[in-house]
C-alpha cells in the first residue's frame, strides 16, 4: 500500500524578487509541513512548475496540466503533477513592480492593473504514476476554488493526502475527496511491468518506425537523447514510452522528461541521458555535438556526425521492422491486393500501444534467450551473488563481432537486469515466462511474419490485461469548473486563499493514528524458482554456425593426438600441418581439449620432449585462434590442462606446459580470470550443498564454464532450493553455511593466485615479454615502462619512483604480477563477500606465492637451457660469385608467401612457402636461402634472390606466423627483376640488427657515385673507392684521362690545342694496361678547321693506332658495313658519297650525349651543324644511323625541337620578317640540312627529273607493280592508326577528314637503279593478326593505291596536289610539339604527328605491371585478378604503340622514303623506335654480333641514360626506376615470338639482358653516355686488362664466353631468309605477357648468373652421390617437376640440347677432348645439307643453313611440328621446322661417313643372319639393317638390305665385352615389345639393337654369346 499523494504544494509568483527580466516562483504553502520519514520533500519544485520561467502575462491564459518527473538522491522517481492557472495582480504594487518592465514594454505610460496576470501552480507530489487521477484531483481543487463550492478546500486536500491505495495486484480502489466526487483507481497486476497507457503508440505516430528504433538502440547503447516539443505533457509521454519499450531493461542514467530552461547546462553533462526540453529553447540545443535530438512535433530524429549508433544485429532488425509495420500499418500488406478486405484498421491506440510493446518484448526474448545458462552463482547465503559470463554468452550465440550486443551487455542497464533477475528464487513475470517457455516457439516462427504476429498479439493481450484487469467501470464523477470566466471580466476572481495548515495537519495525523492501530497488511509474495529455458549450445548448432565438414577435421585431430601418445612421432609429424589448419575451427579446438583431457591421470601427464613439444604447439595454435575474450571457453578448458602436462628436465625438476603457452593475450585479460574464477567457485559451492559423494565434485571442477547443461542447471536449482530453505534455518546453521561458503571462495582465490602466477611469470624472468606487450590487465593502457600503467592501477605511486632507475631485475616482473593478482583478488573477493581478515591474509600471501614460483622457474629455465634446442633448420650458405662479398652474414628469417599462388601449394602441389632460412646481403645481391616449413617438402632448398641494384621498393610490414604467436617485424622488398621478398625476422634477430640491415641495403642500392656500384667495386675487397695515389711512372689512367678531358675543354675555343708531351708506354706495357690511353690520345688531337679538312689528313701517323680504337667502336664498324662513310687514310675520298663521318663532336662539345663520330650529309659543313644543334633539345641534332641497302633511304634520329625552333621550322621561307633574324637563319640552315638529306637519296637525284614538280609522279605510278599495290593500303592504315583518329594538327592537313590525312603517303615503288627486281614482300607476323588489313577505309585505300589520276599542274589545291606524292622525308614528331606550324607545300618532307608515351607513363605502368605479375598478397577480389591488373597497367598498350610506330617507319623506309624520328629528348622513345626499325629491316641485327652492335650503337653510344633511368645512384634515386630498355627488349621478345626462325639468339638471351641491364654486375649498362664513360675511363677497357679473369666487365664478353660453352643463348630454329623485312602484328591481342615477368625457379634462384647455377648443381649432384650404394630398392627414374621450383628448361630440356649434353658426357666418358657444341652443330647442318643435295631435295633458298621445304606461310608462323612416324626422332628434333618428310627413310646414305667401309673379297661366311633395327650413332635414328654374324672372321657385319653387296659397317667380336637385354630409347621403332631390345657393349661404345620379337632377340643374343665363348 502507498500514499496516493505525498505532498500538496501551492507555488506562486514571487513579487519581492522581481528584479531583471526573469521572475521567480516561491512556495506559498506546502502540506504536510514536515517531511515524511520515508520520503523527503523534493527540492526545486518551483523551477519545474514553470519550466519556461515565471513571467507575468497581459492576458489570462487557460489552466494547464502536466506531470514532470524528479529523481532524488536514492534514484527514486517523484511524479510532480502541476496544475497552473493565472491570477490578476494587486494594483498598489504596480508602479514599483513594473518600473523595470515598463522600459521594455512597447506600451508607454502606466499599465492597467487588470492587464497583468501572474501564474500560480497547484502541485501534487507522488511516487505513483497515475496521471489521470492527478489531473482529476487537482482539477477538483481548482473547481472548488473557482466555483466557490461549499466544501472547504482543507477537507479536500486533507482527504487527498491521506488517501492510501495498493501499489499493484490488479485491484480497483474507489476514492473520494469529499466534494461529491468519486474516482476508481486501477492498479496494475504486476508492478514490474511498466504502465504505458497509449504513450508508446503516440511516440511511433509522432516519429515513425525507423526513428524510434534509432532512439531505442541509442538508449540501450548509452547515448544522449533529447526530445523537443512545445507540449510538456507530450515530452513526458514520449520519455515514458521510450522507457516502456526498453523493458525488461531499466534505464539508469539521468532521466528528466521536462527540463526547466534555467537548468539547460545539464545538457552538456558527459553522461548519457534522456531529457525533454520545450521547443522554445531549440536554438540553445543547436551547439550540442554529441546529442541525438528527436523533434516530436516535426517527426525528425537528428543524429550528429560524430555519433555512431550500433543497430540491432541484422536478421533481428529486419524482423522487428516488419513486425512493427504490421502493427502500425496493417493495410500495407494488402495495399497491392486486387480485392482488399473491406477494412483493416489498426487496433485502437491503447491496444496498439501494447502490441508495439509486445514486439519489443519478443525482440528481447530473442536477444537474451539462454542468458540464465551464463550466470555464475558464487554465493547463496546470506544474499545470492550472481555474475554473468558475457564471453560465453556471446560465443555461444556466435555474436562476438556484434557491436550492439557487446555494448548492451557492457551497459549499466544490463548490469541492473542481472542483479534484479539473476537470483534463482524470486517472483517471476511475463519476460521470465517468455525466456523460459517460448524460445523454441520464437525460433520456429521467426521466418513467418504471420505466426510472429499471432505470438505478438498474445503477448500484447497479457500486457493489456496487466494494466486493465477489469472491464472499464464508468463510476467516475469529478466536478469540473463551470465555463471559465471571460478573460476581460472586470470582476476579478478571488485569489487562491491561504489554507489553514492546522486543519490539514489534523487530517493527516488522524489518518496516521488510524493506520497504526490497523492490522498490518500481509501481502503474500509469490516467490518461486526461476526456470532457465532451453540451453544455448544446441540452438547455435541449429543455426549452422558450426564449421563445415568438421567431422573429417576432428578425426585428424584425434588421430594426431593418439599418434603422439603412442609415440608414433613420424606419423604425428605428417599430420601436424593439417591439425594446425583444422584448429582454426571451434569444433576442432573443443575436440582437442576433450582428447587431451582423456590423457590426464590424477591431474598429471608426464611426456617426453618430443611429445611435450607437439602438445605445446597444438595448445599454442588453439589459443592463438581464440580471441582474448575466450568466448568459446577454450582457454578455460585448457587452463587445468596446462598445469597437468609436463616433462621431466632433471632430478626433481619438472617443466609444465604453462611455461610454453604464455604468449597469449587471453591470460592478461582480467575478465577472463574473473569468469574462470566464478565458474570454479560455482562448482565448489554446488558441491558443498550436494549431499552426493565426491565423485561428482571432481567432474564439476573439470567441466569449467562451458560444461554440459546438467551441471549448470544443478547450481541454479540448488541455489533456489537453498534460498527457499534459508528462512527456516536456525541462526547457527545460517552462520555455519555463510562461513563454509566464504572459506570456499577464499580457497579458490588462493588457487587462482597460484594459477595466475603460473601463466603470467615468464620462464625467463629476466625477460618480461608478456607484461611489456599487452599491459597486463584490461587493455586500458600499454605503456613501455616495465610495469604498465594498468597494472599500477590500485597503487598510487608509480613503481619507477620506488626503484629509482636501477636495472630492471626479476623483481620488476614479480612486482607487476603481484599487482595484477592483487587487483584481481580485490575485485573478486569484494564481489563475493570475503571477510577483510581473509583478504589481508591473501595480500600477504601473494608475493610469497610469486616469489616461490620464480624460484622454481629459475631452476626450470636453467635446465631447459641444457636441453638440446628444437632443431631449427641450419642456415644454408649461398654460393657467391667471384668478387662478390658478404656485407651482412645470414640473419634468420621466414620467407612469407606473397600473392603468387604456385609456391604456396594453393594450386596443388606442396607448400614451398612459407620457408625458414636466412637472408644474406652481399655487395651484389640480396639472397634468401632456406627450407620450407611444410615437413612434406622439408628437404628441398628454397632460394630467392635479386641484385641489390634492382630493388625498387622497401616497406616495413608486421607478420604473424601461423606457428608461433609472435607478431614479427618484417620487410617487403620488391625488385624490378620481378621478384618480391616478403621476410619476417626470426625472434632471435635483434631489431637493431634488422635496422642495420636496412641501412646497409640502402647504402648499396644507392651508392654516392656510380663507382660505388658492384660492377666497379667487384674484387676490390676491403679497398675503398678512393683514387690510388701511387706515384709510379704511369700515373693512374683514370685521373689522367680526366685531366686530359678537362684541359681539352679549356682550350676548346682555340684553333689548335697545344700538344701535351705524353709518351705512350711501350707496347709490352700497353697490352697490360687498359687501352683507354688511345681514347685520350684522340681527345687531345687538334681541333679541325671547321669542315675544310677531312679527318684522315690531320691524323699523324703516331696517332693512327689511337684512331683505330674509335674506328673499332660499334658505330664506325656499322657505318662502314652500311657504306655510310669510312675513315680511309687516302685523301681522295670520293666526293660523290652522299654522307661523311663528321668529327665535329669528337670532344663532345656539340652534344654531350652523342658519340664522338657522327654521320652527316657530305654537303653540310661542321659549322652549320653546331648552329643547327641549338634548335634541338639537348643539342641532339638529326644524324643518320642506318641506310636501307636496297632503296638507299636513310633513317635519322634526333631529339624534338626546342619550342622556339618549332615556328621557324615550319615558317615558309618567304615569310615576311623585319630583317633576317638569327632564328630565321637557323631555320634556313635546318631546311638546308633536310634538303641535303633528301638530295642524298638516289630516287631524288634520278635523271627522270623526279625533283621537278612536273613529272612528279607519273613515271613511277606506272611502274608500281602488282605486289606493291597489294601492300599499299597497309601503309595508309598504319599511318592512320599511328596518328590516331581524332586530333587534327592545324596547318599540317587541310582538314581532319580521313581521306586527306591518308593521302599524306601516296606510295609508289621506285626502281632500284639498274636492277629490275621485285621488291621482297617482307613478312607479316602470325596469320591470326590479319585483321589489320581491314583496318582502313576502302576509299583511303583507293587513294593510296593511286587510283585517282594526278593532276600535274593546278590541281584542286596546292596542298592536295603535293600530297599526291610520297614525300622524300617523313619526320615522326610529337603531336604536342607540332602545334602551330604551317606546312609549306613545296617542301619535300612531311611531318607525321604521333602521341608519344612519356617517361612518367612508362614508370607508372611498370609499377602496376610489377604488382600484377608479383602481387604482394593473395586477393580474391574479382577486380584484382592478374589479367585485370595487367590491363590496368597499360603495359601492353605501350608496347603496342612503340611497335606500331616502328612498323610504320619500316614500311616507309622500305618504300624508299627516308624517315627522321624526332621525339622527346631523343634518348628514350626515339631510341626504342630507331632500334626496332633496324632490327625489323636488317637481318644482320638479328644475329648475336648484330644485336650487340645495335645496342652498343643506338643505346650506349647515343646516350640512353641508363644510370638515370635505372636510378642507380643516390642522385637519381628520386627520379625512380623507368625501364625504357626493358620495354625495348619486350618488343624484341614479341617480334621473336612471331618470327622464331629469324633470330640467331634465343628468348633466354633477351631475358639475360633484361636481368643484367639492371643488375649492375657488368659495367656495360652503367652511366649515361660515352662522354661519361670516357671521363670515368671505362669506355675502352673492355678489351683491355684481364687481371681477374673471372670478373667480366662487359656483358658481351660474358655472353661470348658462355656461348662457347653452352648453347643456352642459341636459337636452334634460326634459319633466316635473305634481306628479310619483318612486319610484326602489334595489336594487343597479338602480344603475349613475357614469361620473364612471371616465372621463377625457387630451387636455384635466377638462372642469369650462370656460374652460380652451375656450381649449385654440381654441389647438389655431389650431395646425391653418397646415397647411391643403397641398391636394395629400385630407384625410380621419374622426377616430379614443380612449375615454380624446378628450372623446366634444365629438367626437361628440348631434344637438341639433350642430345648435345649426351654427346658431351659421352666424350667425357671416352676421355676424348670435348668438341665445341657449335662445331658439332655446324657439322650436322653441313651433313644435312649434303644429304639434301644427294637426294636432290628442292632447296627453298640456297643460303639457308638448314635445308627446308616448308611453305613460306608455314615458315612465318614459326613453329611447325611434324607428325611423328617410325622415322628419325633425332631428325625431327633437328629439323623441327625444316623437314616435312617424316616417313622412315630406308635408303639415305647418311651413316656411311661414320664407319669405315668394309669389303670382303672372300665368300661370305654367314653363321646367322636376319634383320635388326640398329640405333645409329649420336643424332642418328634407328634403322632396319641386314645383319650377318660371321664366326670365321669373328665379326658382325651389316648391310643396307639383304641384296646389298656393299657392307655398311662391321663390329669386331674381339672388342665385344658383353651382350645384355636392353631398353627402348628415344625414337625406337613403335609397337615392338620391350624384350626384343638388346645392347652390345664393346670397348669403344654401346650398340643398341632391336629384333622383330623377343624369341628372335633371344636367338641373336645366344648366337653372339656362343661366338664369344667359342673365342
How would you characterize this protein structure?
- The chain is of the alpha+beta class and 1911 residues long.
- The strands form twelve sheets. The chain has a seven-stranded antiparallel β-sheet, covered by helices on one side. The chain has a seven-stranded antiparallel β-sheet with strand order 41-40-39-38-44-43-42, covered by helices on one side.
- A hairpin with a 2-residue loop joins strand 23 (915-922) and strand 24.
- Helix 27 (731-760) packs antiparallel against helix 31, helix 27 (731-760) packs parallel to helix 32 (836-866) and helix 56 (1524-1538) packs antiparallel against helix 57.
- The radius of gyration is 51 Å and the shape is elongated.
Q: Which range does the strand content fall in?
A: 5-15%
Q: What are the segments in which pLDDT stays under 50 over at least 5 consecutive residues?
A: 91-113, 485-491, 538-548, 692-712, 769-810, 1022-1108, 1205-1221, 1247-1273, 1285-1321, 1326-1364, 1582-1587, 1667-1671, ...
Number of strands: 44
Strand order within the widest beta sheet: 25-24-23-22-28-27-26
Which structural class do you get from the secondary structure elements? Answer: alpha+beta
Oligomer: single chain
